[in-house]
Design goal:
With 453 residues, the protein is of the alpha/beta class. It contains 19 helices and 15 strands. The strands form 4 sheets. The chain has a 7-stranded mixed β-sheet, sandwiched between helices. The N terminus is likely disordered.
Length: 453
Amino acid sequence: MRAIEILFNEEDPHMNPIAQELNQMIEKGNPHIFQMLSEVGKNLFFPKGILSQGAEAKAKASRFNATIGIATEQGKTMHLPSIMDAIAGISPEASLTYASSYGIPALRKSWQDELFEKNPSLANENISLPVVTAGITHALAVFADIWIEPNDVIIAPDMMWGNYNMIFKVRGGAELSPYTLFSQNDGLNLVAFEEKIWEASTKLDKVIVLLNFPHNPTGYMLTLEEGNRIAKVLTDVADKGTNIIAVCDDAYFGLFYEDASLKESLFARLCNQHPRLLAIKLDGATKENFVWGLRVGFVTYGSKIDGDSSIVYGALEKKTAGCVRGSISNVSHFSQSAVLKSMHDKRYTEEKEEKFETLKRRAKRVKTVLKDHRFKEVWDAYPFNSGYFMCLRLKTVDAEKLRQYLLETYGVGLISLGKRDLRIAFSCMDEDEILELFEIILKGVRELTARNQ
């Protein structure tokens, strides 16, 4: 007993402070319960990051709430009419019964067909049939269960979605090894990326690379040149004898707003390059089809395989379905049926294009507004050209202090990331609200700066 208490009280420097606080609460109330926790259980916590800031904004934001990772129109949830019609017309047999742990066969095939349509480079490639997951967060957790060992190293950008830490590090026991995302010329820092990959390959037999483009939180999508360069680097490293797992988190796939952006997933450029290079595509209807709460995601595999690839992919699909079976059993039959029915609706393509154009206009409006020299005096905008978000790098004030000030004073909800970065979800801002939002942020910066002088 004494040894256990001493071990716990000598706080693990690698444990999250929030997890430590929760452990202390449990141990104080009942030390026996604390002793029963697994190592993962001791390390788990509910982050005070985007979710808690978003909840605070939901409760207090009376003017603008630019925190949530969904899209809205006139304050209402953006949606495809074909989805809403599908929801109303699904039979009990297609909604209330259990679905296969693999997912509905017709949905898996339809999603694969769309992958080929959306990624023309895949036309002559063999890939697995997608396995359905409960959203992309679940897809990431399934990936981690199957492919990540404790102490594995995952190469990822220094700016990243906070939940990666929970999924890969806290639950999976892996180490996140960051590289600087942007170079000084406002593009991907290919030098930092390449150096990090080659450095890892000299120390490890297996290198895991997280490729999240369009990027969350910055909203950056690679150029064609950057995408080709990443593919070459990973192929060259594999050719030197290192096993590479390239996991493509394509949550915001298709929301590309500029001509210079790569219009395909990196998965399409990686999946048939080398036997030592395994590409894994994690995507879903979640954001592509504006059905966030339906929780429908997919895991798809691609690699260079000699012989009958269907045997290898079939085995991987079975393992993936087994992981789904061993965690949530199966994904909602209702949700899968709604997505499938919408995908086969004759209005589907036109509806998606309409919503895409709405989001594109908002992104263009943000870029136009940010050209004002007044804004350039107090912040720099990180490069963005896709997705739901963009980020500001504040020059004079603390991001969290500004977030709280704007929420309390002006009823504006934003997300602070670290000391100086502020994330804005233009996906939930109507076009005519964008200028006013940035004017309020500027006003808040000036008032905080004056207060601190």
